[in-house]
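Look at a sample.

——
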Amino acid sequence: MSAANEDDRSRSARDEDAPADPLASLVDALVGAAGQPPAEIAHRVRAALPSAVAEVAESNRRLREATHQREALVGEAAAELRVAAEVLAEGNGDASHAEAIARLRRLADDLERALRAPSEPPSRGPAALPSAARPRILVADDEDDARDALVMVLQPEYDVAAASDGDAAVERVRADHPDLVLMDLFMPRLDGLKALERIRSDPATADIPVIFVSAGADDAVKARTFELGAADYLQKPFSDRELRARVERTLRLARSQTALRELAQTDPLTGLANLRAFRARLEDELKRARRYGTPLTAIMADMDYLKPINDELGHAAGDRAIAAVAAVIHSELRETDFGARYGGDEFVILLPHTSADEGRVLAERICTRLKQTLVDVGGRTVPLGASFGVSCLPEDGAELASDALVAAADAALYRAKRAGRGRVAVAPSLSESGPREHA
């Protein structure tokens, strides 16, 4: 078989996987006319040109349509967040509740900023953003000159750190959580591909975008970078303008994805996490507790007497009461705690590294605060209240099913309900039977 035939077969195989080229018919006409008289070339090009123009127009139409659909989706999400924030803001002055409202508004701002793509790459002029507001970028390259050149180009607009090999890059990513990583492909100790694999394998760093910057690699290596989750591939040599444009584009997409992901995991009424986010967090916390042999406590909470509020004052008043309970819960959580709306007027709290007794203390504090909290709805003062159930994954609970912790807290909650409401019930060790009740 000739080398030409092998090239044709290889090209054909690549073309099967590639998206349709709207200029393919015009290129084919030019290739077929090679060596022909000028008149014949002109004839074939004129014959192929209308269909090529039509293909280009159709390709552009599909691209615009997809872009408009995405922008409409993001715009609608931002609008819904702002409406939810305004509903929460009406008649509520609690400082902790204000924090949840501000979070919803920040999400809406992030989504709207993602829609406003700059027409030009960021300026290299002296008017740079304040350091605290600038994205953080890590540059990983074993060549000093190449690394210094990237840092020099990016420093006016970004906070830039550097690493000299793959191992150092992974360590810096885990320690600093930069907004973006620019990484060389070929480095000592740990090459770029293996470094990316380690970054993606850690849930804490898996979503950090990585752009590969390299002098060259074959198509298989480039394809492998994208299979592993690279955001982009920038091949040397490139201009400063192209570098800044690629970086800004990747950061903009990352902000949009982060805002959408947080929106998908947030309950719009309360600002707490939703059930989907809770289930994911529960799995992560269970794995962590099993690995390190630490306790994990869950608290289930259910509002008392919400139905009379809905029946007498309407569901809008009930929603305000639910939001007020969520605000009290949120205000009592530590940074490592996790609160979510479980559904309706139920809430769940995860407390890592926390014993059952410590969880009981927190539940009783929230219970007491709710009894002291009144919500003004339409000129009428509405009291709040909830019942709580507490359960704890023991340090030796490695074989426990993932839903047993929540099920035990739920069972304790309904014991508290039956005992008179407005109280806390603590499930015993999950290997024992019967919860203990605390008035």
